[in-house]
């Protein structure tokens, strides 16, 4: 999981010394509202805690995630309602007996007794939905199921709690109404209104991060709903960004291993049937005929190929570059895979383009360093990226290489990349990430120096190569002539 906060070593130390709290009496939740936006590969969960300090000098609030919740969560951030600042968040330990993970939020100031605050905790869950039924024939609709534990896990008592599930359309097939909900309410415990199902309000909920509660009172609920877009997942994304000062160019190349995680196709694929549904309107929601991706402004020379070769049926609308400080519209590329992607099918393709290096780089005279900002990834809308590898290839002979990723990678390092016409090879930065979402779109900053002599090496190498080619061409011509003579 990526915490939207980078710890300093000092804070990390205090974190290690801290033990977990499964019950805490420094706060109470006067109200908790959780909204779960169920969708495709990504589910966004927003929980607002209206908290009241029961003790003075309360500066750390603890949030808790159940086992399943924790496993699915790939993003976690906390803010004070209405404020932009993301609050520092630290791992607070794991209690294996109850299967609960704790995180500590550092509040902006120590709260006085009876002081209140509204804390908003946002998480993004991945792979939390699944197609149900698991199979669909080519013309069938698509439905998904989302299952979760109902009550918000918290080490504090809660006076009032509501849990809402919002689906993309009001077409909800079913939702669970477990009998145990009556324990905390005298009203109708669950209601549906349009595309929203509301559980609660529930009153006087005890500490939920406790064995007694989790064993006896926690409820399991499921929502089954229609989903009208393909369930797209990127199993693997490999990005290669190559910086060339000589060509004043930044080349970015992405290889995607895409998967339609929708219901598996029942029976055989019929192209005829597919073409008729395409002709008479929208194709079934579980078929992916094309996808649109956003690329940076000011790009040129795009290319798109798959395992078979170039794919020509793609459409690019480039927006002009506004320089590195200007805000500009992204370029839009509509990709049409070689075949429509049915549920359970994979598609591997490569997408590349060039950009003026000046849009991404600057030179700092004082330190003699170049600073280049490389976008972390290309977003496929609504998709999770299970595994990402990002390679940033620097100019030959670059020294003093440093990099500043927006989020802590699972793995990173510097290697050497040797290509044609290189004399000593190029330093390359490799970063690996797992389960990226739209929240992780960021920029990796790279700084380095290039010695003046290195600028000369490349033209020299190219000149040598050209001389060689020229000589070869000359020979070939002579050869040619001799053949024609025959
Ligand atoms: C906090 O609120 C409670 C209940 O309203 C009250 O009894 C108590 O005196 C308050 N404490 C302080 C320090 O204001
Ligand atoms: C693919 O397209 C690129 C650029 O348009 C071209 O240079 C290349 O030769 C093409 N490759 C094939 C196999 O058609
Ligand atoms: C798609 O890729 C996954 C993972 O590599 C694999 O398990 C699955 O069998 C592939 N599906 C098809 C239809 O090839």
From TrEMBL:
<protein>
    <recommendedName>
        <fullName>Dolichyl-diphosphooligosaccharide--protein glycosyltransferase subunit 1</fullName>
    </recommendedName>
</protein>
<keyword id="KW-0256">Endoplasmic reticulum</keyword>
<dbReference type="GO" id="GO:0018279">
    <property type="term" value="P:protein N-linked glycosylation via asparagine"/>
</dbReference>
<keyword id="KW-0812">Transmembrane</keyword>
<feature type="signal peptide">
    <location>
        <begin position="1"/>
        <end position="23"/>
    </location>
</feature>
<comment type="similarity">
    <text>Belongs to the OST1 family.</text>
</comment>
<dbReference type="GO" id="GO:0008250">
    <property type="term" value="C:oligosaccharyltransferase complex"/>
</dbReference>
<comment type="function">
    <text>Subunit of the oligosaccharyl transferase (OST) complex that catalyzes the initial transfer of a defined glycan (Glc(3)Man(9)GlcNAc(2) in eukaryotes) from the lipid carrier dolichol-pyrophosphate to an asparagine residue within an Asn-X-Ser/Thr consensus motif in nascent polypeptide chains, the first step in protein N-glycosylation. N-glycosylation occurs cotranslationally and the complex associates with the Sec61 complex at the channel-forming translocon complex that mediates protein translocation across the endoplasmic reticulum (ER). All subunits are required for a maximal enzyme activity.</text>
</comment>
<dbReference type="Pfam" id="PF04597">
    <property type="entry name" value="Ribophorin_I"/>
</dbReference>
<keyword id="KW-0472">Membrane</keyword>
<comment type="pathway">
    <text>Protein modification; protein glycosylation.</text>
</comment>
<keyword id="KW-0732">Signal</keyword>
<dbReference type="InterPro" id="IPR007676">
    <property type="entry name" value="Ribophorin_I"/>
</dbReference>
<keyword id="KW-1133">Transmembrane helix</keyword>
<feature type="transmembrane region" description="Helical">
    <location>
        <begin position="459"/>
        <end position="476"/>
    </location>
</feature>
<comment type="subunit">
    <text>Component of the oligosaccharyltransferase (OST) complex.</text>
</comment>
């Amino acid at each position: 999981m990526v915490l939207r906060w980078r710890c300093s070593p000092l804070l990390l130390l205090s974190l290690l010394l801290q033990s977990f709290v499964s019950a805490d009496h420094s706060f109470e939740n006067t109200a908790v509202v959780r909204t779960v936006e169920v969708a495709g590969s990504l589910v966004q969960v927003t929980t607002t805690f209206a908290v009241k300090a029961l003790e003075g000098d309360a500066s750390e609030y603890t949030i808790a995630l159940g086992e399943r919740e924790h496993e699915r969560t790939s993003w976690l951030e906390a803010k004070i309602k209405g404020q932009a600042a993301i609050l520092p968040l630290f791992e607070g330990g794991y209690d294996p007996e109850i299967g609960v993970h704790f995180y500590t939020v550092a509040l902006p100031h120590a709260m006085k007794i009876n002081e209140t605050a509204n804390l908003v905790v946002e998480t993004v869950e991945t792979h939390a939905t699944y197609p149900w039924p698991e199979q669909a024939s080519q013309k069938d609709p698509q439905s998904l199921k989302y299952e979760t534990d109902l009550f918000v896990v918290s080490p504090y008592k809660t006076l009032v709690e509501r849990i809402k599930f919002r689906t993309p359309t009001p077409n909800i097939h079913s939702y669970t109404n477990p009998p145990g909900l009556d324990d905390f309410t005298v009203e109708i415990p669950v209601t549906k209104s349009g595309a929203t199902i509301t559980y609660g309000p529930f009153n006087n909920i005890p500490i939920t991060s406790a064995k007694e509660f989790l064993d006896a009172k926690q409820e399991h609920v499921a929502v089954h709903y229609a989903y009208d877009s393909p369930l797209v997942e990127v199993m693997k994304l490999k990005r290669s960004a190559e910086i060339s000062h000589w060509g004043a160019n930044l080349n970015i190349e992405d290889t995607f291993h895409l998967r339609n995680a929708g219901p598996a196709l029942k029976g055989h694929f019929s192209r005829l049937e597919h073409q008729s549904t395409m002709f008479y309107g929208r194709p079934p929601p579980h078929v992916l005929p094309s996808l649109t991706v956003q690329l940076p402004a000011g790009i040129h020379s795009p290319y798109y190929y798959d395992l078979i070769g170039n794919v020509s049926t793609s459409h690019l609308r480039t927006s002009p570059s506004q320089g590195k400080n200007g805000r500009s519209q992204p370029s839009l590329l509509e990709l049409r895979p070689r075949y429509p992607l049915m549920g359970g099918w994979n598609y591997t393709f490569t997408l590349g383009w060039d950009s003026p290096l000046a849009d991404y780089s600057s030179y700092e005279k004082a330190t003699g360093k170049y600073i280049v900002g490389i976008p972390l990834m290309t977003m496929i809308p609504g998709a999770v990226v299970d595994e990402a590898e990002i390679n940033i290839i620097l100019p030959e002979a670059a020294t003093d290489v440093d990099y500043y990723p927006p989020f802590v990678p699972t793995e990173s390092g510097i290697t050497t990349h040797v290509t044609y016409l290189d004399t000593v090879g190029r330093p390359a930065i490799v970063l690996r990430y797992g389960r990226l979402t739209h929240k992780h779109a960021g920029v990796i900053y790279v700084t380095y120096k290039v010695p003046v002599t290195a600028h000369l090496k490349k033209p020299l190498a190219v000149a040598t190569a050209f001389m060689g080619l020229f000589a070869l061409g000359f020979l070939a011509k002579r050869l040619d002539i001799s053949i024609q003579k025959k």
